């Protein structure tokens, strides 16, 4: 077992809980989750690559209230572990796709958590109507613990998948590179969707794009 | 105007106000948990008032979590001044919409995408993990300061908190944040695209332009019916099938 594995599991749990329950401090953003995972694994560059692509996907998401949205945090941690598990950049594309799939599964699990909390609240209704302080505290801690269990399970599931893939499947370099281009194109599509979603107006979008192209050309 | 005591405990608890989120009460449980220490301090001498105030605080509530402090401060003031239960409940539900709309604009379409897009640009320019750390620190410093300020604003203005927020700088900051985020997300996309393509061996800026044009065309064709994730997964299946079956 890699010594980094327990730390990755803890980090995956932290970023999963950050998405909704506590503290919503941007730790669950893929750029943050993947970069720190890369640092934990001793491969910060892979973390930054995965983080930047998945962050572009995440720009397409508006995580408002009861809406359904992907949970990119644990997915970004797992994707970084996959990308860092081999030499060469041909694992980047498959890693990002794995991260995207896990983010979708994570989003579904958040809905399950909401239903679980709902069941607990219904049972606790009489105590809540009486203003029972211990019940409020109990529901809060159960909610956060259930979210931690969800995030830990999601990260463990994803990392097991990575171990299985690395043990049983050799990703052909050509396929990996093609999937890498698909992932980058998908990220750019996410960025474009996110850019058009902002209601700042067409001139500002044009100005931003122009500045972006100039910086990309200079850099 | 007097200051609300124990503000930092309430602000710290507000960080977890979405724990226990359910379709039934939405943020109600977290709101109640965050307001409990302050309610105990204000009304603890009268257990009946304290318990009915806590019961109201755990009722249905749904607003932007970063701005909920204003509602909490106002509710604490109303409870302390002994307003009738129905009036406090009306205040609470009346604040959900405006705080949700303003907060979503300020944070979800402004600060969060703007900051992360800025982080992406800094990473591609070589700032590495420092850029990521800077984004996290900047976001959290601002939101904790804002929560503390909003809590006090709500406490000072009580039932008139909606008006106080409208006449504050927040709506203007929201508009500026959205415009800034628009420029930053638009700028970050080609910069990140070029950086990523360079990493997989493609130095050509024309490729970035091609991908951007393709993305705009796909968006124009599909509208919001297909997300980037769905189209990417379809693309990956097609590439996989082509490579494994036809090559």
What does it look like?
The complex is a heterodimer of chains A (219) and B (247). With 219 residues, chain A is an all-alpha fold. Chain A has one domain. Chain A is 78% helix and 0% strand. Chain A contains nine helices and no strands. Chain A is globular, with a radius of gyration of 19 Å. Chain B is mainly α. Chain B contains nine helices and no strands. The N and C termini of chain B lie far apart (76 Å). Chain B folds into two domains: 181 residues, no CATH class; 44 residues, no CATH class. Helices cover 78% and strands 0% of the residues of chain B. At the A-B interface, α2, α3, α5, α7 and α8 of A face α2, α3, α5, α7 and α8 of B.
Features:
heterodimer; A: mainly alpha; globular; B: 247 residues; 9 helices; elongated
Outline the secondary-structure elements.
The complex is a heterodimer of chains A (219) and B (247).
Chain A: H1 4-20, H2 30-40, H3 44-58, H4 72-83, H5 92-123, H6 125-129, H7 133-168, H8 173-197, H9 202-218
Chain B: H1 7-14, H2 28-43, H3 47-57, H4 68-80, H5 85-157, H6 161-166, H7 170-199, H8 205-222, H9 228-245
Helix pairs in contact in B: 1-2, 1-5, 2-3, 2-4, 4-5, 5-7, 7-8
């Amino acid at each position: 077992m890699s010594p980094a594995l327990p730390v990755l599991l803890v980090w995956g749990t932290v970023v999963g809980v950050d998405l909704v329950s506590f503290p919503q401090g941007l730790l669950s953003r893929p750029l943050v989750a993947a970069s720190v995972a890369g640092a934990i694994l001793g491969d910060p560059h892979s973390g930054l690559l995965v983080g930047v692509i998945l962050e572009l996907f995440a720009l397409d998401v508006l995580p408002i209230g009861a809406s359904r949205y992907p949970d990119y945090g644990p997915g970004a941690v797992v994707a970084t572990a996959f990308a860092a598990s081999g030499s060469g950049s041909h694992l980047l594309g498959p890693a990002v796709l794995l991260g995207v799939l896990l983010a979708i599964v994570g989003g579904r699990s958040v809905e399950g958590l909401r239903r679980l909390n709902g069941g607990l609240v219904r049972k606790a209704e009489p105590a809540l109507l009486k203003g029972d302080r211990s019940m409020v505290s109990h529901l809060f801690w159960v909610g956060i613990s259930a979210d931690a269990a969800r995030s830990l399970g999601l990260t463990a599931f994803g990392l097991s998948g990575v171990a299985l893939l690395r043990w049983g499947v050799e990703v052909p370099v050509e396929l990996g590179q093609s999937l890498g281009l698909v992932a980058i194109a998908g990220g750019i599509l996410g960025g474009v969707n996110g850019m058009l979603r902002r209601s700042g107006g067409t001139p500002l979008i044009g100005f931003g794009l122009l500045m972006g192209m100039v910086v990309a050309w200079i850099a | 105007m007097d200051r609300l005591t124990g503000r930092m405990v309430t602000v710290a608890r507000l960080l977890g106000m979405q724990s226990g989120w359910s379709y039934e009460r939405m943020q109600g449980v977290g709101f109640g948990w965050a307001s409990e220490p302050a309610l105990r301090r204000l009304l603890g001498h009268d257990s009946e008032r304290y318990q009915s105030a806590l019961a109201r605080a755990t009722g249905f509530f749904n607003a932007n979590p970063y701005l909920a402090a204003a509602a909490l401060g106002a509710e604490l003031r109303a409870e302390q001044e002994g307003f009738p239960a129905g009036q406090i409940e009306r205040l609470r539900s009346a604040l959900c919409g405006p705080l949700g709309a303003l907060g979503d604009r300020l944070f979800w379409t402004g600060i969060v995408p703007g900051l992360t897009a800025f982080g992406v640009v800094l990473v591609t320019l070589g700032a590495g993990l420092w850029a990521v750390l800077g984004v996290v620190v900047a976001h959290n410093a601002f939101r904790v300061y804002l929560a503390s300020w909003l809590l006090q604003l709500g406490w000072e203005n009580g039932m008139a908190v909606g008006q106080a927020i409208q006449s504050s700088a927040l709506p203007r900051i929201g508009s500026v944040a959205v415009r800034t985020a628009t420029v930053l997300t638009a700028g970050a996309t080609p910069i990140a695209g070029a950086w990523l393509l360079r990493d997989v061996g493609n130095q050509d800026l024309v490729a970035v332009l091609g991908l951007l044009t393709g993305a705009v065309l796909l968006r124009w064709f599909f509208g919001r019916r297909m997300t980037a994730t769905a189209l990417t997964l379809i693309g990956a299946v097609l590439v996989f099938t082509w490579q494994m079956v036809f090559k």
